[in-house]
Amino acid sequence: MNWANNLIILPILLPMATAAALIPIDDRNRTLKGVLSFASTVVLFVATVILIGVVSSGEAAGTSVYMLGNWPAPFGIVLVLDRLSALMLALSAVLGLAAQVYAMARWHTAGSHFHSLFQLLLAGLNGAFLTGDLFNLFVFFEMMLAASYGLLLHGSGPMRVKAGLHYIAVNLAASSLFLIGVSLIYGATGTLNMADLAVRITTLGPESRMLMEAGAALLGIAFLVKAGMWPLGFWLPTAYSAATPPVAAIFAILTKVGVYVIMRLSLLLFGNEAGTSAGFGQDLLLYGGLFTIAFGAIGVLASQAMGRLASYSILVSSGTLLAAVGLGNGAVIGGALFYLVSSTLTTCAFFLLIELVERGRDAGADVLAVTMEAYGDIDEDEPEKEIGVAVPGTMAVLGLCFCACAVLMSGLPPLSGFLAKFAILHELFNESGFGGNMPITAAQWIYVALLILSGLAAMIAMNRIGIRTFWTSIEGTIPRVFLIEITPVLLLLAATVFLSLQAGPAMRYMDATARALANPSNYTDPVLSAPRAGPTEGG
Amino acid sequence: MELVLSAGIGVLTASGVWLLFRPRTYQVIIGLSLLSYAVNLFIFGMGRLRVNAPPVLEPGGVGGLLTHTDPIPQALVLTAIVIGFAMTALFLVVLLASRGFTGTDHVDGRE
Description:
Number of helices of chain B: 3
Shape of chain B: elongated
CATH topology of chain B: Helix Hairpins
Shape of chain A: globular
Number of domains of chain B: 1
Strand order of the largest sheet of chain A: 1-2
Order of helices and strands of chain A: HHHEEHHHHHHHHHHHHHHHHHHH
Largest sheet of chain A: 2 strands, antiparallel
Helix content of chain B: 55-70%
Order of helices and strands of chain B: HHH
Number of strands of chain B: 0
Mean pLDDT of chain A: 83
Number of helices of chain A: 22
Helix content of chain A: over 70%
Oligomer: heterodimer
Number of domains of chain A: 1
Strand content of chain A: under 5%
CATH architecture of chain B: Orthogonal Bundle
Radius of gyration of chain A: 23 Å
CATH class of chain B: Mainly Alpha
């Protein structure tokens, strides 16, 4: 077992250890806590980049397995790193970095234990991406949710507590469904290991198969609630727009966890080898995804406040991804993954930007009454700390960032939002792709239309809000923005520019991921045949 | 035994879901608790019901399906209980905070 293999456990251990180490430090030393936490996330980011290098350098599938306690699968719990999980790990580390830097300007002072909760959220996220075991997935998922409850309530105030109450109730109910689903699957197949499950599904008897499918459906509902699929996503806009900006920014990836698990499980368990279960739930994902895009696009158009606009655009991106999974065309997954990365970076940047832009506006401006409230409180507490340099041409920088977000969200060239949608559409019509020569159905045409129309809706809504904020602003006060706050936004947008410039290598990675996912044996074989580590030398 | 257990799970789930849809926060938390009891019993039931079959091996003993019951669901239940308990406690705190902020125990913060 070489060092790179042991690196797989690092994305879980490191944030967990950091979170624990930060708790005893007094909350008055926030800067120290922030720096430690930031340093840990930087290490995490470097580790995920190395892991991406590991998966993309090896053979086509690049799946590596880490056996916890050296117990072989399916008896022990395994962590599985493949291209998809490595991609998600890196994405969550990037978002973590951005949100953390931003929070260090002022938001981490709005409540206690911000950085510990943040690190626990990262640990839960990374664990959910890495685990190869359904029940372990539940544990990491709950860890992530528990941290997210704390983070959503960060900053307190009636609006956040109310939103938090609904958010927690919805997620607890969804967790119950998750458990029922997992135990049904265990009862029907006798295994919780995802790779073992994918193998056993091929030989299930009819009664067990029915129970297994019922379990998978319940499990799916739990994740669709998280992903915000219509009609299960009504809780999302309220919760996300009530959260503090850095929290909302990292929450941009929480919906993607739902999408990730749906993608992983439906491609792994219900691939072509699954007998009569092949393609189980695909239609539901496709039509649910289409409705979600439509609902999200209408929500984007109807939003008066930027926070809600951003929340609805999260629904649009969830819908796009779910429908892409539901299409059952393996090649589209590659484009969808590119879209996932691009849209997550965009939403994260936009959530961070919103508060900076709103800061200059009238506190009564319908939107972030909550935010302003907490923001005002901080001012009262530490008025002398206003040492930040007002960036020259603040409005110009903010305006440019806003334009970039608008271009990305509506999918216009030249940024990655356009490339992502183009990649999806291209693969949809590409008859020579590995998805094969599939006839283009009516649902696919609707998908194409909705993909383009949702971009149009985003553009109209962003135009309207942009004009109101930047050109016809009544007060004309220039917001005071710390350099440390605008930097993460700029870096996230730079990441999308980088993604556009390096679209070739990025798309090759995504396509290789899609190809690996299309063939479940790329996942199951390495997991089930992974050798146990021998006794160490001299041990 | 099967009938009693399934009826128990059914009653708990039904009561839990009904309470979950009630407008008072206290009803919601009791509903969620009942729901998690039902789920825990359900997980337990998925290991199949057996009488006089321990889940743990005696020292030096040999395990077998005839003499032993499946230990995994029991381990899962344990984890689920712990997590469910922690979440209920957390929800209770948020419930009290909401009561403090709004002065009402309605889930929407107003009557």
